[in-house]
Specification:
282 residues; alpha/beta; Rossmann fold; 9-stranded mixed sheet; globular
């Protein structure tokens, strides 16, 4: 087993280093080592996937804007090549839940790569202030995020252990929306799984909020370049069931018979997140 360890969290002077040094420092082992405290349930019993038989590492590679983009990587031991899954986090960034998801995928025979999209501004993972987290996330605009995914695809393409013609993407909440956007943009992606990502603006969204969220998945149904499976909760107060129905109708209208959203009637938002009170065991 090859395992690169990380320290137990960030010291105050490491929370907001310079834009360029943060990518390098994080890749050197400074991902927040615990679960995101903003929503961690005191009664949670998260799944803990060990790294036996895996190679895990923190790395960094250049994004289009020159930033050294940090990412967590988990893959099976051996030379591969392995099919790859890009893992897109919720608004809390790359914390232990996201790393564990990567290790679960690696145990199943995939290489998993989780880029840290938010750290140009600050790592949201150690923070408890939701307003501060939302400000950090808002700074990660569509073009930056798509550029980071492009850089991730480029990096995957030169890894000897990666089966670069078999790459999928999955993401949660904020990352679920990114899945729809990425599959509409990159023909190199072979499939996507979107977990409860917003599909359209909220009914009470302002014009600025509508503009900031573009392109919305419901407007991209006809542009998808690969199948997408959406997994959503029927009790998700932030994503009304009628918006899920509208997305399924948009997919049908666009002839995307290979894509659909499955709605789990009794599930709330975040039902996959086993460190949160919203978790629902399958």
């Amino acid at each position: 087993m090859t395992l690169i360890t990380r320290p137990e969290g960030l010291s105050p002077d490491q929370i907001a280093p310079s834009r360029r040094s943060l990518g390098v420092a994080t890749a050197g082992g400074l991902f927040f080592a615990a679960y995101a405290p903003a929503v961690l349930s005191q009664s949670a019993q998260p799944i803990a996937t060990d790294a036996a038989g895996l190679v895990t590492a923190d790395t960094a590679y250049p994004a289009p804007d020159g930033f050294a983009l940090p990412a967590y990587v988990a893959r099976p031991e051996g030379s591969g090549p392995f099919p790859v899954v890009i893992v897109v986090s919720e608004i809390f960034g790359v914390h232990e839940y996201i790393r564990d998801v990567c290790r679960r995928l690696a145990k199943a025979g995939y290489a998993a790569v989780a880029p840290a999209f938010f750290v140009r501004v600050q790592d949201p993972a150690p923070l408890s202030d939701m307003q501060a987290i939302q400000r950090i996330v808002a700074a990660a605009g569509y073009e930056q995020v798509m550029g980071d995914i492009s850089a991730t695809l480029d990096w995957i393409g030169v890894q000897s252990w990666a089966k670069a013609d078999r790459v999928g993407i999955t993401g949660f909440c904020w990352g679920g929306k990114v899945v729809w956007q990425a599959v509409a943009r990159f023909p190199t992606l072979d499939a996507g799984v979107a977990w409860y990502g917003r599909l359209s603006p909220a009914a009470n969204a302002t014009d600025d909020q509508k503009a900031a969220g573009r392109p919305w998945p419901i407007d991209l149904a006809g542009e998808l370049k690969a199948p997408v499976l959406g997994l959503y909760g029927g009790q998700d107060s932030g994503i009304p069931n009628d918006t899920v129905e509208a997305m399924n109708e948009a997919l049908k209208a666009a002839g995307r018979t290979d894509s659909q959203i499955i709605l789990y009637d009794d599930a709330p938002h975040g039902f996959h997140a086993d460190y949160r009170a919203s978790y629902r065991e399958a």
